[in-house]
Design a protein that fits this description.
Distance between the termini: 45 Å
Radius of gyration: 24 Å
Number of helices: 6
Number of strands: 34
Oligomer: single chain
Length: about 625
């Protein structure tokens, strides 16, 4: 009853103060608005970065993409990547314990290794993991500008491993100079110009907490300390040509637990990611060209009692170039090439010994065409072919159609797309002391996604959207002693409906969303940790006295999981999570507090791993 009263109260506040005006498409800025920052005049309010790879304006409109802005990250206290992911409709983050613990995500019910992670559009997945999955629990938001989430098969955009979707972590110069302090650490940002052509941005922070044990029922608390920073440098060679470099680094130290109460003390992880990007970019009103060099390194160490140490390392190098052209008012095209080299090594020494030493490279060629038949009907074709030195070649494509104003203010989009996931280096080259040996004859998993959507502008700043989708993933890579094999007779099948409504004005922002998901194996059984029903609501309001109120509600429906100790399949109950934050400016300093898990829900996700109860934090933010 308390939960229902609180939710109804927040909805009443929203209805009582809301004025519906126009909502523009999130993440799109057709016209740059000149701001007057205290430290820099004439800098655009919105920084336009290089668009998604192998895309055009039409495919951008057809893609199911969500952008979580820096403002949303700060307003809703989204401190790390799992909290950002849970801000997105039909994408579930499952974290084995509290902040800093290992985290998997399931995009529209796909597997945990079916979502590609990118940094400024370049893949950064860790090839030293056994199945190629990314640990989303290690990244915090202190050095990130915004996050993009793409849902559905996206091989035509990104190449290998975007079989269920992609998450793009974006860094760029943030022109709001500030210092932020809270009871779990601090963060800061500084941007400036040097001379007439150079722009420099430095951002980063430290987050440290020790709130709960990762293992449910344990008697000790597992802490985490994250340090992250980014340096962005831009040199404008002329009004169209710029040189840009990014240095990205993060380190996360975390206490961890085993799968029983006897395995608590003496376990920790040290997780590092270092990345460097440098590019030359040319842009004018009709043309976009860039060439980018990227390298990154994952370095992970796990310490156990009796001086057992497991080391994991992977390195990647990417060279990518792309040319895009709006040839006429109706016709656009793009083409490009991407070369990527991956190398990974690890060695486990203890009761269980496993090892990996392997590499492969990949070259991809891609092209797209966008064409507008008239003012309301447009189409796009996106194609990419990849050739991996070990796995062989794979083709990906997307065909999409956009019809605007079927009736006034109602747009319709439909698309068919494909993707693939290459075997991981461990699946190809790994070994262990129980007889496992890698299989170099593995081929790629394949996916197909069909999607249609409607967007209706209810008023100038209010929009309602519906997306229906189905995805089939085949040729699955599964373990069958003593190696991994492709299962050519089974598949994973996901389908569902996603609903969303939102509006925004000067003092209010409101979004409510829900999804219904079916994620099943070939035999019709449900996949684990895929709730059939999820929904959420975000509301922000600025009162007359300048007090800012933000609420964030998430409902996660009941689902199946695996028991932490006896490995049986069990039912997990639904969960209601409500967060609240209040902020007010006093003499140029924002002072506020946040309460996470306001309802003090006591739950496990996954089974056997505890979550933080009601948690209070304070924040102080000063711009300079």
């Amino acid at each position: 009853m308390t939960r229902i009263v609180l939710i109804l109260f927040l909805v009443w506040l929203n209805v009582g103060h809301a004025e519906i005006v126009q909502v523009k498409e999130r993440g799109v800025a057709d016209d740059l608005i000149t701001c007057e920052w205290e430290n820099q005049e004439g800098v655009p309010c919105v920084t336009i970065t290089v668009p998604i790879s192998n895309s055009n304006k039409i495919s951008e409109k057809i893609s199911t993409k969500t952008i979580i802005t820096k403002q949303e990250i700060e307003d809703y206290n989204l401190k790390d990547l799992p909290s950002v992911i849970n801000h997105v409709n039909n994408v579930i983050a499952v974290q084995s314990g509290g902040t800093g613990q290992q985290t998997s995500i399931f995009t529209r019910g796909s597997n945990s290794n079916h979502t590609l992670v990118l940094l400024n559009g370049i893949p950064i997945n860790d090839q030293s993991t056994t199945n190629g999955a990314y640990d989303f629990g290690q990244d915090f938001m202190t050095n990130v500008l915004f996050v993009e989430v793409y849902k559905g098969s996206a091989g035509h955009h990104f190449g290998a491993d975007a079989i269920g979707g992609a998450v793009n972590i974006v860094t760029d110069i943030d022109w709001e100079n500030k210092v932020v302090a809270h009871n779990n650490g601090m963060a800061g940002n500084y941007a400036t110009r040097i001379g007439d052509n150079w722009q420099i941005g430095i951002t980063g922070g430290v987050h440290e907490e020790k709130e709960t044990s990762a293992l449910s029922g344990a008697n000790e608390k597992d802490g985490v300390k994250n340090q992250s920073f980014t340096i962005n440098a831009i040199n404008w060679l002329n009004e169209h040509l710029r040189f840009k470099s990014t240095l990205f680094a993060r380190n996360t130290l975390a206490d961890i637990d085993g799968h029983s109460l006897a395995l608590q003390e003496g376990y920790d992880s040290d997780n590092n990611l270092y990345a460097f990007q440098t590019s030359l970019e040319f842009n004018d009103l009709t043309t976009s060209n860039y060439i980018t060099f990227h390298s990154h390194k994952h370095d992970r160490t796990y310490n156990s009692p009796n001086n057992e140490v497991d080391d994991y390392e992977s390195d990647s190098y990417v060279l990518k170039a792309e040319h895009s052209k709006q040839k006429t008012e109706k016709f656009s095209y793009g083409l490009g090439v991407e070369y990527k080299y991956d190398d990974a090594f690890f060695s486990n020494q203890g009761s269980y010994n496993s090892s990996l030493s392997g590499d492969y490279d990949n070259i991809g060629y891609f092209a797209n065409i966008g064409y507008s038949f008239n003012n309301s009907l447009s189409s796009t074709i996106n194609y990419r072919t990849d050739n991996n030195s070990t796995v062989g070649s794979n083709d990906s494509y997307k065909i999409g159609l956009l019809k605007e104003d079927i009736i006034p203010n109602l747009n319709f989009k439909i698309s068919h797309s494909t993707g693939f996931k290459n075997p991981s280096l461990y699946e190809l080259h790994g070994a262990d002391n129980y007889g496992y040996v890698g299989n170099k004859n593995l081929t790629s998993e394949k996916s197909k996604t069909n999607e249609l959507g409607f967007e209706y502008s209810i008023s100038n700043n209010s929009m309602f959207s519906v997306n229906l989708f189905e995805t089939s993933i085949s040729n699955l890579i599964e373990y069958s002693y003593p190696t991994y094999e492709n299962n050519t007779t089974s598949s994973l099948n996901q389908s569902g409906v996603e609903l969303a409504y939102g509006f925004r004005n000067d003092k209010n922002s409101f979004r409510i969303f829900s999804s219904s998901l079916s994620s099943k194996k070939t035999d019709g059984t449900d996949q684990l940790r895929r709730p059939g029903l999820t929904w959420g609501a975000n509301w922000g309001h600025i009162l007359e006295d300048g007090l800012k109120v933000n609420t964030n509600y998430n409902f996660i429906g009941n689902h199946l999981d695996i028991h932490n100790s006896n490995w049986s399949i069990i039912d997990m109950p639904d969960v209601h999570l409500l967060d609240l934050s209040l902020t007010k400016n006093f003499y140029g300093i924002d002072i506020g507090f946040s309460i996470n898990n306001l309802l003090d829900e006591n739950f496990e996700a996954p089974h056997g791993f505890s979550k933080e109860g009601r948690n209070l934090s304070f924040v102080f933010k000063s711009a300079f």
